[in-house]
Amino acid sequence: AFKAAVLIQRWYRRYVARLEMRRRCTWRIFQSIEYACEQDQIKLHNFFSYLMDHFTPSSSKERDFISRMFISGESFKEAELEKYCDYESMEVPDSYTGPRLSFPLLPDHATALLEAFKHKQQLHARYVLNLLHETRKHLKQLPNISHVSTCYSEEVTVCGDLHGQLDDLFLIFYKNGLPSPSKSYVFNGDFVDRGKQSLEILIVLFTFLLIYPKEVHLNRGNHEDHMVNLRYGFTKEVMQKYKVHGKKILKMIQNVFCWLPLATLIDQKVLIIHGGISDTTDLDMLEKIQRNKFISVLRGKKRKESNRNVEIQEINGESKAEADPAGSEAALSLCPQPRPTQAPSMANKLEFSRWVRQTVQEQIEWCRRLVDISESEEEELTYSSVVSLTDLDGPCWTRQEEWKQILDILWSDPVPQEGCSVNTVRGGGCYFGPDVTGKILEKYNLQFLIRSHECKQEGYEFCHNRKVLTIFSASNYYEIGSNRGAYVKLGPDLVPHFVQYQANKTAHTLTMTQRQGFPVALISRVEESAFRALREKLFAHTSALISAFKAYDKDNTGRITLSNWATAVESVLHLGLPWRMLRPQLVRSTADGMLEYKSWLDDLAMEQRSQEHIQSSLLEVIYRNRSNLETIFRIIDRDHSGLISFEEFHQTWKLFSSHMNIELTDDGINDLVRSIDFNKDGNIDFNEFLEAFRLVKQSQ
């Protein structure tokens, strides 16, 4: 009996270990593909930024058009934005049965919204715009770093990424209670994208923010960025739900996002930021940055920065000619410092007083030009602008330094290794080690750091000797059963207490017999989904894989070793996956340890073609580039109408042709756009846009 028990125990431990290994491999696949996609997004945005910085418009109309296309959130001044998003002129029809909002908001309004969204009702566009308008007014008065105290409430609840998963937010409120004067919440960014109910989450959070401004705190995440929203679904969601007023709602949301606070401090001891820190993170600088200037964190404004650096170098006593001999005269002429006229005699006090006022006014005008402020941009004073004005004698930071501060706290990830390095996997932010964490905590007298930004299987995870806590609140993020969501509660002792959950209706309907085998079935389902995504990725790089395989197949036998297969696949995909361990799920076992790679690739192509009836070579290109193509389409589609107009195509092609040194006349561009417009309706839809990328193989 004892031997039998030991045998069963050994078998069970081996079984559990195999399940855990399968779970970890599945997780690595999902995470590697997600981060590779984020890297593609940043590369694509950097490409368009490069085009913008090196493109010389031929007319003011062309300049305005390109500027509106790629810097859409910045083209509206205060008065223009309010006029454009005029909600008061919208009428709510009597047939509307959804919730109605009146301001100031009351707790009953929040309850009505929650009930409406549970029943899949939609809030009228007038109320959405009104809510965004009031939210923006409130956010503008908030500091960059919110300060929360546990003295006023028994505990503070911190939630991580929600990513448009409204069921998770409902479950948090069900388990923990709604925000109230005795229940404070901090929502740590990434409210939108990926999920299908991002807008509803924003509406709920903004409503509670206005009802309980001292108890509800929102941090900005890396997905609160209109350029990221183009790729990951939020822009598309808004336009589908509000076909008439969607553009106005998007414009207002872009402006609200840039006013979200950057961090939260609990009892001056716990710092909450979305991504992480770097070795250059400076909380003093973060407190004084005018955060609304960074509508998209992906793009640092290099053009204005270069002009401004001329004057900053002069202030610091550095000669522009020494720093950049080429073109120094042209740069200096952009913003010359006024030379004061000779002072009149002190005997004539009236004359002297006028001279002082004139000289001061000239110096003020020079300073305005230096920091890119025009008199037409008269806005109400905000918290950050007041801080800037009261610290005129403080250090002078460049736009690039401020941009990097925000980029690092929104995009960075912790790693076990010491030091700070560029985050090559995501393409933005940095990797920071335990030594960097220790220095920042010691410098600002903090106990620990709470961040989100990374999906964790249990919903939370400690690292850096329990000094960094990652909290992630979107359960089933990759697939049903892939991960739990969690939130953390902090009392006056600042000891974290975790609550985990899984918003999964499937699990609640299982019988007792089904529940016993549920973990295995769930892992199999998640694993199948991960390998399906990985096979799509492999198929999308068929051409590159063939070239890599041929490098190991010197004799053109069509066969390579399984070890060479693993090395070649990693050299093409750069996903950092354990390919030898994943091989049994991807490659049929062979007796002699050799793989016929062409037949293996044919099998991948057959699997994808069974889902899409398109020729294999075209399908490969579309699979490899479909996310980029859709993002490019949405960038060119400036008004988010779902169609590219001839004018939008014309101006974008001029940008491309300038970069590629292709001489193309206006008639040539018109011929090109007409050839893509297959149904001749005067616009290009997404299917026509994809069709234009068919590959035509030239004959020898």
UniProtKB/TrEMBL annotation:
Domain of life: Eukaryota
Keyword Manganese: yes
Biological processes per GO annotation: detection of stimulus involved in sensory perception; negative regulation of MAPK cascade
EC number: 3.1.3.16
GO molecular function, one term: manganese ion binding
Cofactor(s) listed in the protein's UniProt record: Mn(2+)
Reactions the enzyme catalyzes: O-phospho-L-seryl-[protein] + H2O = L-seryl-[protein] + phosphate; O-phospho-L-threonyl-[protein] + H2O = L-threonyl-[protein] + phosphate
Pfam families, per database record: EF-hand_7 (PF13499), IQ (PF00612), Metallophos (PF00149), PPP5 (PF08321)
Assigned keywords, A-Z: Calcium, Hydrolase, Manganese, Metal-binding, Repeat
EC main group: hydrolase
Domain EF-hand: 540-575, 624-659, 664-699
InterPro entries (UniProt xref): Calcineurin-like_PHP, EF-hand-dom_pair, EF_Hand_1_Ca_BS, EF_hand_dom, IQ_motif_EF-hand-BS, Metallo-depent_PP-like, PPP_dom, PPP_phosphatase
Protein family per UniProt: Belongs to the PPP phosphatase family.
This protein's name: Serine/threonine-protein phosphatase
